[in-house]
Amino acid sequence: MNILALFIIIPILTIIGILSTKDHRGTRIVSAIGMGLQLITSVVLIYMFYAERNAGNHADMLFMVDYMWFESLNIHYLVGVDGISVAMIALTSVVTFAGVFASWEVKDLPREFFISLIVLATGVFGFFISLDLFTMFLFYEVAVIPMYLLIGLWGSGPKEYSAMKLTLMLMGGSALLLVGLFGIYFNSAPNGGQLTFNILEISKITIPMEAQRFFFPFTFIGFGILGALFPFHTWSPDGHASAPTAVSMLHAGVLMKLGGYGCFRVAMFLMPGAAHELAWIFIILTAISVVYGAFGAIWQKDLKYINAYSSVSHCGLVLFALLMMNETAMDGAIIQMISHGLMTALFFALIGMIYGRTHTRMINEMGGLMKIMPFLAVCYVIAGLASLGLPGLSGFVAEMTIFVGAFQHPDTFHRVVTILACSSIVVTAVYILRVVGVLLFGPVRNDEFLKLTDAKWFEKVSTVTLILAVAFIGIVPIWLSDLIRLSLKPILDQLSSF
Amino acid sequence: MNLDQFLIMRHELLLIGVVLLLLIAEVFSKSEKKHFMIPFAIILFLLYTIVGFLPAKTGVLFGGMYQTSELVILFKNILNVAVFIILLQSASWLRKDINHERISEFYIILLSSLIGMNFMISAGDFLMFYLGLETATIPLTALAAFDKYKNKSAEAGIKFILSSALSSGILLFGLSILYGTTGSIYFTEVAEKLVASPLLVLGFIFFVSGMSFKISLVPFHFWTADVYEGAPVNVTSFLSVVSKGAAAFIFMVILFTVFKSLSNMWGDVLYLLSILTMTIGNLFAMRQKNMKRFLAFSSIAQAGFILLGIMGASELGMTSVVYFVLVYVFSNLAAFGVVSVISDKTGLESMDDYNGMYRTNPKLSLIMMLALFSLAGIPPVAGFFGKFFLFTSAASKGYYWLVLIAVLNATISLYYYLLVVKAMFINKNDTPIAKFKSTFTDRLALIICVAGIFAIGFASPIYELIRSLSFGF
């Protein structure tokens, strides 16, 4: 059997397993085993991928499986992976695994919680392995819809409002996206012949320039909404702030990456002409995202809002780098996706754990947590340092590569926006260090907090998994770059052909 | 003409046989044991439904008045399945004492209406079409007023008969103008002689208006919500699924065959109608609190989506419409099934009563959620596939802006479907609907619906089968 099928089958089996459990204990054990298997499978996938590559298989996509689905419309169930998808799959497995442990103590309707969480993860896995636009779109929607219940039922604060806002905005995004996909489909055979949803086949033909100009914005914005593109990012702070811990982790860590991934795999890869022509508009928008997100984070007092805005900034940076369309910058964009996915997940996990103890997320109500819960506090510092780009952790590699790549453009426009975007690094340092200073050091402001305990074993599993991954990328970034570089080549070739 | 040829009308003849058997059984059954009619009718109809799936002869009868093709037979089978589910759903409602005397009445009237629909969709000329339409409509009036002790039900009956009389009048006027300009009522002959003269356009507009009443397109939808709310739940589901599906089908067939040469014109008309129908249906659905009214407006919006498929004016378009109706049958009947079960057990029909239902009746809530997701077009349930193909059909003709409006409308519809999900799963309630056990027939009906909702989407052979039978131009 093909290894990629496992990424759909294991979650489904896990869900069936959860349904057959009786109590809370059984539910979480089954989920942990299922997602643990998933993590192992993705490690095996990386290994097999390298083995194939070393054996001299330089096809764009490996492990491809192709089933005819709706024959008359030429819709296939077509899956396959390149280095980038392998990296994204590994990211998803790590975050989901950590997410299960971070929600170890969900008391209310635990079975439903874990099922929704795993359905969400299935959608994400499916999205990353799809090479057929129909299948891809299907998995995209599968990934979005469980968010409503997850936030609405297990969230906090104005959860119903946030859940509805998030779902509708993302579905609105998928409306734009769908129009874009139809545009691609009906222009996929300009010289006559069979229309197709197959990404690889479409990339071989040139979609007429007229159509590209019309449909590129639909596709790019459609995916961009999920990647928190300014001014369509407003779902993100509210959604993240209201979501339960594991959902914030998965959402900021993985789901927002669907947007970035879709932007280059579909919008830019298939419509390179329009990508070049219209890039300037989106570069401006993403630069605004980067700076605005960072400044937004400074003003917030709620820990989750701080991270949500910081996610807007960091995800904006992903799109920004992709639009630079050179090897270094795009390389950086992918590393940034992985790195941001891991450290944001770590942040949200820690915030959830802190909130679970102090019952507040307002930074000015807390203080001196380093004395009370040293383990969580140290983890928080590590996440913060990764986020502001300390060398040795993943954030540094990503941002460094992106800005070096972006600065390679000799013209004024690109240089100016790059310098503007660079300013976000400073702002990031401000808000991260402010939080670390107020939250972790200084006096304990509330005597009640002295009774609180440090992390439990399952919380340690969750955080340590993520920290190991962050450090791994920070120390051996070359490993990740190797995985990505070869796979970026077809996309770069496509883009430079214009 | 030999007897053999009557086999072409197998569906109608068998159905008439079923109705006659029910009549005879009614006469010979003791008045205190009327409830034996329920399993009898269900089993009889099940047999008829199964026979319907056997390979059938196709052809033309009565000199072209009646015609049937593989696609028409398939569509009749879809309607049969829908009616079978409705019969299952109505069983526990009919078992109530208040309905005891009128059990067979319900079946006989309902199936008579179905006979009319069968004739309507296999019409080969406008006379047969009109006869079928009226045979289908008049019994429905009696059904809408079936709860005769409720004012609202009687009101529904009156509203329905008045509005359908008006719409039939308009339709008939349009048809007579068509006859006047072309000199024929046969579909094929009218199509040949059709030339766009002002009078003919007038006739065409009357025809479209009349049909819009039947399918309840905006701005001809005013009767729908009141009738749907007043009628008993199972009648409402019949109206919104079977009646609407059949009317939409024959509307499409007539547009595709008779008005083929006017396709540019009806493309524009439908463009406008579909935008109005989707948008207004959605905007009104958002504000509804009564579940039946809510589903009524949502089904108005769904009709707007169907028009997108028709506008494709191709094989693809016809396939997507028939496929969507099939999906819609299962999703809408699942939603109505849940409403019907709850209304039977508790008498509650308001959305607020559904608050916190998941804690007490998890299975019903899950089915409702799946049904609503399917109506909203969320994968992996079948509604996603249905909507996707409708949109594909419109996009294939280059109506990209319309597709955008439609998908945005689907997003709006998701909003109000989620309101129900929110009520069931998220809202807190001190006195949620108490836990109850539903009857065997209710459960069977819901299981069939859920199986349909899951299976039809992924089962591409069904789509390919419809595709191979469809036609376009």
What report would you give on this structure?
The complex is a heterodimer of chains A (498) and B (473). With 498 residues, chain A is mainly alpha-helical. In chain A, 75% of the residues lie in helices and 3% in strands. Chain A has one domain (3-496). A two-stranded antiparallel ribbon of chain A has the order 1-2. In chain A, strand 1 and strand 2 (75-81) form a beta hairpin. In chain A, helix 5 runs antiparallel to helix 7. Chain A is globular and about 75 Å long. Chain A starts with 5 loop residues before the first helix and ends with a helix. The mean pLDDT of chain A is 85. By secondary structure, chain B is mostly helical. Chain B has a two-stranded antiparallel sheet. Chain B is globular. Chain A binds chain B through residues 69-73, 134, 138-139, 141-142, 145, 148-149, 152-153, 159-160, 164, 167-168, 171-172, 174-176, 178-179, 182-183, 185-186, 214, 218, and chain B through 316, 319, 373, 378-380, 384, 388-389, 391-392, 395-396, 398, 400, 403-404, 407-408, 410-411, 414-415, 418, 421-422, 425-426, 460, 463-464, 467.
Order of helices and strands of chain B: HHEEHHHHHHHHHHHHHHHHH
User: Whole-number average pLDDT of chain A?
Assistant: 85
Structural class of chain B: mainly alpha
Dominant shape of chain B: globular
Largest sheet of chain B: 2 strands, antiparallel
Number of strands of chain A: 2
The amount of helix of chain A comes to over 70%
SSE ordering of chain A: HHEEHHHHHHHHHHHHHHHHHH
Q: How much strand of chain B? A: under 5%
How much helicity do the residues of chain B have? over 70%
Characterize the overall form of chain A: globular
Give me the number of helical elements of chain A: 20
Strand order of the largest sheet of chain B: 1-2
Q: Provide the residue-averaged pLDDT of chain B.
A: 88
Distance between the termini of chain A: 40 Å
